[in-house]
Write a structure and sequence with these properties.
This protein is α+β, with helices and mostly antiparallel strands. The chain has 19 helices and 9 strands.
Length: about 475
């Protein structure tokens, strides 16, 4: 590319960043909430079987749930509550919030908390809340070189995929949870909602204990060694995570996609994790010499140097267990899930609702047309990478569920955008009175998955729990009368 062409491409990329920060059109949001948002499904989920059809139901349950709305100009409305599905639907349609967050179920109606406070008795407290996890790609900036900050592309997105696999397997196999909802955050990460009854009723202390169970990445930007796998034997959870998910992902995808050993600056970061100067000097010498003499293709140098590092650390002359375990520690440092621990520890933490629209959007078609028109002025790999990045950066995407059993197939660049969905509605020519308006749009697949794979099994379990609890109370009442 010529200097003039490079400067032009840089200017275009700068302009694309500006375009990407445009706000979602409020009129588009009104249409989305008026015609596509799955109110009934959300109400059924958050009612957990308390629909009034069984004498054992808690009629006040849904009305004690906190919702928060973010409106235009960052107006933030907390402690919203709704007794019925029409109440929820009418309020969202009226306010068209740019973001909806879901909080806990409180002991009393959160919108009336001030009235209870005047009694002098603190009765306003969270009593139930899903166990939630938040994983954000920005927390991986020290181990990815394709993007940084809020940017994400198809080279670094697999970090989110492997995080889903590791956490989901542990929640099911180690804790016995079954009703787990994974959701694309709309831009740069994933959220997890664990909805089993025993998960929703965990105390803050119990939530913190589960969060700490997953805590492996303990470093900060000033730490040379950010993961320490101490002890003579690794915990079975860590052994399974490494053998089933992390090792293969690191060696077959991450090494090459991020070029972890390509430059001296990058491999020095890895050498810092090895607590033996003689080993690091030996490897550094090989790689510096290799850089001067090797004619191997760049995409192979990462695999070559990783193999040399493993061979050196795991050879017979390395007696110390800590040194041998450096291989696993490096893999964990780069590939293990990085959780926002505070989100999981506290019952009253808010989390963005599924099927929200990410509050930022941009000129998707305009940007791609600019790229395509100037593709000849860019190298092929530059064009491909920028295109993949901006498919994801340009948000306004819906926070759709992710199937953990098929998360490798999830492509954030193909998540429906608000403008795309409204265009599909216009093509279909559907009216607001049509049943399942979303069924003919790109959102249909996500809602069908939500219903069949998550909501229906969850509600079946909830109703069985309500019936069992009600029967037990009846039996206790009969026993007490018989005395």
């Amino acid at each position: 590319m010529s200097d003039d062409g490079r400067e032009e491409a840089d200017n275009q990329r700068d302009q694309m960043s500006i375009d990407a920060a445009e706000e979602v059109n409020p009129n588009h949001l009104k249409l989305y909430y008026g015609r596509l948002f799955p109110y009934a499904d959300m109400f059924k989920w958050l009612s957990y079987g308390n629909d009034g059809k069984h004498p054992g139901c808690d009629a006040s349950f849904f009305g004690r749930r906190e919702f928060s709305f973010t409106l235009d100009n960052d107006v933030y409305l907390r402690f919203q509550s709704f007794n019925t599905l029409p109440d929820l639907e009418n309020s969202i349609k009226d306010k068209s919030p740019s973001k909806i967050d879901i909080g806990p179920v409180y002991s009393v109606d959160p919108s009336k908390r001030h009235a209870y406070a005047q009694s002098g008795v603190n009765v306003f407290t969270p009593v139930e809340r899903e166990l939630v996890f938040d994983i954000d790609i920005t927390d991986y900036d020290d181990v990815r070189y394709c993007c940084s900050g809020a940017d994400v592309c198809l080279d670094c997105w697999p970090l989110m995929t492997v995080a889903i696999k590791v956490i989901d397997a542990a929640l099911r196999e180690d804790f016995g949870f079954n009703h787990i909802l994974w959701v694309f955050s709309g831009r740069r990460g994933v959220h997890c909602w664990v909805c089993d009854g025993k998960a929703r009723r965990l105390t803050n202390e119990q939530r913190a204990a589960i969060a700490d169970y997953f805590r492996v990445y303990k470093g900060n930007e000033n730490s040379g060694k950010k993961v320490s796998l101490a002890g003579p034997v690794l915990h079975p959870f860590l052994v399974r995570s490494y053998a089933d998910f992390l090792k293969d992902f690191f060696e077959t995808k991450l090494l090459s996609s991020q070029n972890l050993f390509l430059t001296e600056e990058r491999y020095e970061k890895i050498l810092e994790m090895i607590p033996d100067n003689s080993v690091t000097s030996e490897l550094r010498g090989k790689w510096q010499q290799n850089t001067r003499r090797s004619s191997a293709p760049k995409e192979d140098i990462n695999l070559v140097r990783w193999a040399q590092l493993k061979s050196t650390l795991q050879s017979g002359k390395q007696k110390g267990q800590g040194l041998r375990r450096c291989v696993e520690e490096i893999v964990f440092c780069f590939a293990y899930p990085r959780l926002d621990m505070e989100v999981s520890k506290h019952m009253n933490h808010l989390l963005k609702a599924p099927f929200c629209v990410h509050p930022k959007t941009g000129g998707y078609l305009d940007v791609l047309s600019v790229l395509e028109m100037n593709a000849s002025a860019m190298k092929e790999d530059q064009f491909s990478h920028i295109t993949r990045c901006y498919h994801v950066i340009l948000s306004g995407r819906v926070c759709v569920p992710i199937d953990p059993d098929n998360c490798d197939e999830f492509d954030p660049t193909r998540v429906p955008m608000l403008s795309q969905l409204l265009g599909e509605l216009n093509i279909e020519g559907r009216t607001a009175d049509d049943g399942n308006v979303w069924d003919g749009t790109s959102l249909g697949k996500s809602i069908r998955f939500f219903r069949s794979s998550f909501l229906q099994p969850l509600l079946k379990s909830c109703k069985e729990e309500i019936e069992s609890s009600y029967s037990s109370k009846l039996q206790q009442s009969k026993s007490s009368i018989s005395w």
